[in-house]
Write a structure and sequence with these properties.
Elements (H helix, E strand, L loop, with lengths): L4 H35 L7 E4 L2 E8 L3 E6 L4 E5 L1 H5 L3 E2 L7 E9 L5 H13 L11 E7 L4 E9 L5 H18 L18
Antiparallel strand pairs: 1-2, 1-5, 2-3, 3-4, 6-8, 7-8
Length: 195
């Protein structure tokens, strides 16, 4: 009838290859979803980190998982991603999360007073667990400052940025009251006079 069957076969092959790839991903999602549901490696209410975004698992379906981020954005994640990529589950061991605030203070600062104030600022902040240890580490001697980190546990990892911000406000207030300087980066420039 004058139809070029070679051209038809080419288009049909391309369509079948596309369908095969789509079905492969679809089946991967379904198998991964069943695996997640059976082994309970991920559960509704878990706080997870995917592609640098932190959120709480809202729903686990056969093909995809729904996550709500800290900014109230809804992410639909194909289940095969959890099988192929590393998953950071913040609440796998328990619901609390360990967080920290890092800062630098001037070299003339009383380091024991800095430690005391950092602990007090964390202890008096809502959302920081009182039954877990609050630890201060003297991290390093920086170029322009002494580097400290205060580590603490929060009862809700979704509120970590808000809790960390509140602690920073308190640190700034307490450091000003106690004349502890948070220095800006400094550079010493030597000018050579070549005549």
């Amino acid at each position: 009838i004058g139809v070029n069957l070679g051209l038809f076969a080419t288009y049909a092959a391309a369509i079948f290859v596309g369908l095969g790839l789509a079905l492969q991903t679809f089946l991967q999602d379904i198998v991964s979803g069943i695996t997640i549901i059976l082994d309970k490696s991920l559960q509704v209410g878990d706080i997870i980190e995917v592609d640098g975004r932190v959120g709480i698992v809202n729903k686990i379906r056969i093909r995809s998982t729904i996550m709500v981020t800290r900014n109230d954005k809804v992410m639909v994640i194909p289940n095969h991603k959890f099988m192929n990529d590393a998953l950071l589950n913040w609440t796998q061991n328990e619901f609390s999360n360990r967080e920290n605030v890092t800062l630098g203070v001037g070299y003339s600062s009383d380091v024991q007073l800095v430690k005391k104030l950092l602990i007090e600022c964390a202890e008096t902040t809502d959302g920081v667990l009182k039954n877990k240890p609050i630890v201060v580490y003297f991290e390093d001697f920086g170029n322009s400052s002494l580097i400290f980190s205060v580590f603490f546990y929060v009862d809700n990892g979704m509120l970590s940025p808000q809790i960390q911000s509140e602690i920073r406000f308190k640190i700034d207030d307490e450091f000003r009251k106690n004349n502890i300087e948070i220095p800006f980066p400094q550079r010493v420039v030597n000018i050579l006079n070549n005549k």
